[in-house]
Write a sequence for this structure.
């Protein structure tokens, strides 16, 4: 249903990245998430891995419920920020939601239908300590549309270079190389929809 590419940068001196991703297919669709543990190092990695495992285990629940589950599970940890999307190929729909500063952009392959680019509305907060009012957005999608997620170790202007045509793995590597800040862990996750009904 999808093809994806991911590129990661670990802050020098740290054993592992606090940024993690999930692409999980189930009967009803595909759950996609980019997760950034607050700070960096082992504690950040543990928080983001915990969230990733929980999202995978409950992947067929609505995404608002998933974020609320993560919030309860991560109380007492550093917490995370994340953006996630659920794609329903049978209906040509995507629901997405962001808490914190993981940027999300959807590029439509067929810009003739209107706006060729949509940006995720991010709500301030930290999952595990300060959860904002959660509101998901539903978008129509079609085969060839491409979803971009980037954590805050990637500069915001990365979105100016996006196209729905570039190979997802090449695009992830290019964006990380050109736009990473170098002062934090960084992750770029790019998912192209290949199984949407036309």
């Amino acid at each position: 249903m999808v093809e994806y590419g991911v590129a990661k940068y670990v802050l020098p001196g740290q054993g592992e990245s606090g940024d993690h991703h999930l692409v999980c297919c189930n009967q009803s669709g595909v759950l996609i998430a980019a997760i950034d543990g607050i700070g960096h190092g082992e504690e950040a990695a543990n928080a983001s891995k915990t969230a990733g495992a929980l999202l995978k285990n409950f992947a067929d629940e609505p995404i608002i419920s998933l974020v609320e589950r993560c919030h309860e599970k991560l109380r007492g940890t550093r917490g995370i920020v994340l953006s996630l999307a659920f794609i329903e190929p049978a209906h040509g729909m995507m629901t997405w939601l962001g808490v914190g500063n993981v940027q999300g952009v959807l590029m439509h392959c067929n810009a003739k239908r209107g706006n060729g680019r949509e940006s995720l509305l991010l709500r301030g907060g930290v999952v595990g300590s300060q959860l904002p009012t959660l509101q998901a957005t539903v978008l129509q999608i079609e085969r060839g549309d491409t979803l971009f997620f980037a954590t805050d170790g990637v500069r915001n202007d990365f979105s100016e270079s996006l196209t729905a045509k570039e190979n997802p793995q090449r695009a992830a590597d290019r964006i990380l190389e050109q736009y990473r800040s170098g002062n934090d862990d960084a992750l770029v996750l790019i998912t192209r929809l290949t199984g949407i009904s036309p």
About this structure: The chain has three helices and eleven strands.
